[in-house]
Amino acid sequence: MVHAFEMKNRFIAYDSESCALHELDEMAYGVLCKFIAADGQTPDISVFEELASAKNYDLQDLLECRDDFSVLIAQGGLFTPGRDVGIEALYPEAPVIKAMCLHICHDCNLRCTYCFAGTGDFGTGKRSMLDVETGKRAIDFLIASSRGRHHLDVDFFGGEPLMNWPVVVALTEYCEEMSKKTGKEIRLTITTNALLLDAEKSAFINQHMKNCVLSLDGRPEVHDRMRPGIGGKGSYEAVSGRIRAFLDVRNSDESLYHEHYVRGTYTRNNLDFSKDVIHMAEVLGARHISVEPVVAEDGAGYEIRMEDLPQIEKEYEDLAEYILMTRKTNDPVQFFHFIMDMQGGPCVYKRLKGCGVGAEYCAVTPDGDIYPCHQFAGDASFRMGNVRDLDDLLDESGNLLPGKKAEDILNPEVHDKFIERLMPKKEACKTCFARYNCGGGCAANSLHATGSLDGMYEVSCRLAKKRLECSLWLAVAGQDA
What is the structure's pLDDT at 34? Predict the structure, then answer.
């Protein structure tokens, strides 16, 4: 599928099947739009006669441009035929779980208004801490489930994981021990609101963890409005200083891991969220930033509405311009949703699939319950199993019994639902130019917004398309640098 669009005085065409990207002049853009209207077929000459009259173009110039496009199409540079890719092409064998969101605790020291996790207890009314043995069994389950996969990922999550710090340390050491024992590389991430992030914890994270996600919504008034502490007082002052100190060390010492994300949520209270990204970059020193739109029920007051989308789309365009400006310096800022490798990106099969929710990725709660991802935790209808059940499949040495698989402990009625969703099958996705970049959208967001895993959450779709346009614009505009 070919998508043509204009953004900030540039005319751009993108073939989603071949990943071919073209910058056009205004006349060529007009000609290509006629090809798009004709589904990639060469339009009749009368179409170009009308265009010449409407735009005061020379007809001969239009016909020469038409012929150039016809050659490009014949060569496969535009309107590349789509492929009907089945899950068997990506997974000759069954998909395996290779990433885990491990809930270190179901409690939190903030009371964020929009929190999908019910301020830490995930709507259960029970605040709890993961114990070391359950955490170890979760990691054992991940290793056993991953079969031949070498690279595994564990995200220490909450609630607020720093509230259960001794368990974070113990499980980090266990992951490193099991990496040596099994030969697998277990990459660790921790997601924290930074309220308890002191020098000791920062040093440990910097030495042992591949990535650290730090939650902050941006400017002080924006952050404090939605992310107060337990007593209702804003948390920006306490959090921002700790994040700044953490990043100062992580960014300056070459012996440390450098990956980080300062991650925020924007609501309709701050539709000018590009200012929050700039604040994170220039005030806090963040160089890897992600801000996500809130997903909230109608009537919450801060939910994103359809009428907000034009302003949000413009905001993404302005943000792209800022990101481009930083790319021309020695200290560029990376915005998560604008990162796109136009040269060495993944093949079509990997581009098609989404995050792997419930099939390649799972979440484990402090009770050991397994869910498709953190956003389903606490919903009993999506409980997939419990990591403690792995004991029934192991011998005295901790190895799987003959004929047993770790995923035998999973409820197939839930597990299979998500294996089927590894490749987007929604009708609207089949003709969408962004289908290879969003994986059909977030299943949890679709469920919460529409009541169905397969529902079309239009706000999310619109924003995914705009973010891809911004990525493509950056790829084109960046060539001028």
Answer: 96
Q: Could you give the dihedral angle defined by the CA atoms of residues 462, 466, 468 and 469, in that order, rounded to the nearest 10 degrees?
A: 140
Range list of β-strands (E), 309-368: 334-335, 361-364
Give a three-class secondary structure readout of 189-208.
EEEECCCCCCHHHHHHHHHH
Contact 327, 478 (CB under 8 A): yes
The CB-side HSE value for 456 (13 A sphere, CA atoms) comes to: 10
- Measured over all CA atoms, what is the biggest interatomic distance in the chain, rounded to whole angstroms? 83
234: CB partners within 8 A, 6+ apart: 220, 223, 224, 225, 227, 228
Q: How far apart are CA 185 and CA 337, in angstroms?
A: 26
Lookup: tokens for 408: 């035998």
Which residues, 6+ apart, have CB-to-CB distance to 269 below 8 Å? Answer: 222, 225, 226, 302
Nearest CA-CA partner of 360 in 141, 99, 90, 143: 99
Strands 21-24 and 10-15: antiparallel
pLDDT of residue 253: 73
What is the residue whose two structure tokens read 């265009």?
51
Strand partners, 362: 100
Among 105, 106, 185, 180, smallest CA distance to 142 is for 185
| pLDDT bucket at 224, cuts 50 / 70 / 90 | very high
For 146, how many CA atoms within 13 A lie in the half-sphere containing its CB? Answer: 23
Digit-coded pLDDT (tens) for 116-167: 887 777 877 888 999 999 999 999 999 999 988 899 999 999 999 999 999 9
SS3 assignment, position 300: coil
Pick from 126, 120, 138, 195: nearest CA to 165: 195
Please choose, from the candidates 131, 283, 152, the residue with its C-alpha nearest in 3D space to the C-alpha of residue 222: 283
Q: How far, in Å, are 88, 97, 332, 373, 434 from residue 388 at the CA level?
A: 31, 17, 45, 18, 40
- The pLDDT score that the predictor gives to residue 275 is 97
Q: How far is CA 277 from the centre of its chain?
A: 17
Q: What's the burial of 363, exposed, middle or buried (CB within 10 Å: 0-12/13-18/19+)?
A: buried
> Is residue 342 over pLDDT 70?
no
For residue 230, give the amino acid letter. I
Structure tokens at 272: 């000018």
pLDDT above 80 (res 85): no
**C-alpha closest to that of 264 among 318, 224, 307:** 224
What average pLDDT score do residues 4-11 get? 96
